[in-house]
Write a structure and sequence with these properties.
The complex is a heterodimer of chains A (about 400) and B (about 90). Chain A is α/β, with parallel strands linked by helices. Helices cover about 35% and strands about 15% of the residues of chain A. Chain B has a two-stranded antiparallel ribbon. Classes of the chains: A alpha/beta (about 400), B mainly alpha (about 90).
Chain lengths: ~400, ~90
Amino acid sequence: MNGITTACNIKEKDEGLLKGITVSIKDCICVKGVKTTSSSKILDDYIPDFDATIVTKLKNEGATIIGKTGQDEFGFGSFGLNNELNLKNPNNEELVPGGSSAGSAIAAKTLKNHLAIAESTGGSIVNPAAFCGVIGICPTYGRVSRYGLIDYANSLDKIGVMASNLKLAALGLKIISGLDEKDTTSANVKVPNFEELEDFKGTIGIPKEYTQNVDAKIKNLFDKKITELQNKGIKTKEISLPLNAKYSIQTYYIIALSESSTNLSKYSGLRYGPQLDLSLKYNDYFSSVRETFFGKEAKRRIILGTYARMAGYRDAYYIKALKVRTLLIKEYQDALKEVDLIVHPTMPINPPKIADAKKLDPIKIYYMDLFTAGANLAGLPHMSIPLSSTSGIMITANHFDEKTMINLGGKI
Amino acid sequence: MELNKDLVLKIASTARLNLTNEEVEEFLPQLKDVLSAFDLLNEVDTTNISASLHPINITGSLREDEPKKSEVSLNGILEDKYFVGPNLK
């Protein structure tokens, strides 16, 4: 079990920065000629006839693309279980791998010299990276082109990387970054050599709300790591992110569900995916296709997201959440004027058992993103470095300051 | 209006999604739990606060307006230049 659900073997150049490196691509990113489904039945037979921009960039650097990795359907999940792929934690098969980029984390953990391309909307890179014990880097919103990404929520989606080796992850991020004329939200910002690690001598902020209610073993590992960093001359400061701690989950889910419910409207059994009996009446056909091929979580999100955007509710939910988002971004930016980076445990718990996670209500699963939703809402770069084989330390930086973040990662 | 079975079915119909009775029964309490959590945002004063559609300022870099051939082909999708769809009647 290596997280790959559709295998391929594509190498277009013999030379380049990724010569000798195998690369896997999360199943929500288009690879020409390779089945790309976002782990959803509604895209079961979809084979793109074009490459995502990041795939072209990887091919140009001599990468060998070996397959697509499994995920929660369309990215809707925090455990990697929202699919029929039977993904498991490589450290202990009774445990969840985390999500939604579950297959990416499994591949990064189990394959040698491997770069896994992942994607995060609300924590889908750092969550499975922590649970599987690998490095995961999610860049600033706009740093990496989203052209060819099967969207979950357009204002939140970021393509990033995972690996067992920090320099390889950093190199991978450099290769996929940069302005793209095919994505008008991609940013025209210089891309540094992330893999050339430099010393970090700044101040890190530890938000007090994000070290509370943390599993005792993880808290102990985190505290020891902070002491180690202090001994290396890094200054630490307690900070506070009260609004994000209290409101980021609700804000994130209202925006994510609203955007995803509109994005899912394009799946109707016409241009993509399997079809049903075309003799059905017009609306009956679309409604039946969507009933048959969407999973339960996608259906719940369509109902919630449509509700949050409906006349009479739009101001109370969707617009309200967008305004609260402004305050949450400002809170992070104010904190990052006081400190260079923000550091806390990536996940408050170790990965639960698969059998236990399957029994949880949706709202309890949504709260798994408590430590990761804020940075994602604010579009801030963040990464997870292993604290143990199933837990991680999360670093968050200011917009487009991935370099400083990765430098601190080198000291951990 | 509080979320109830009729409203869930109305939303599902708007979103072109058939739900079985079992799904409605299963989803309704779950959806109510989520909406109840969302209501916490009412505590936050957002007077005179603008909405953030994106997390960063999007400058919207556009390429030159020159025609280019699309990479996306419609081979296998079209029949005799047309999409084949369900019955309009």
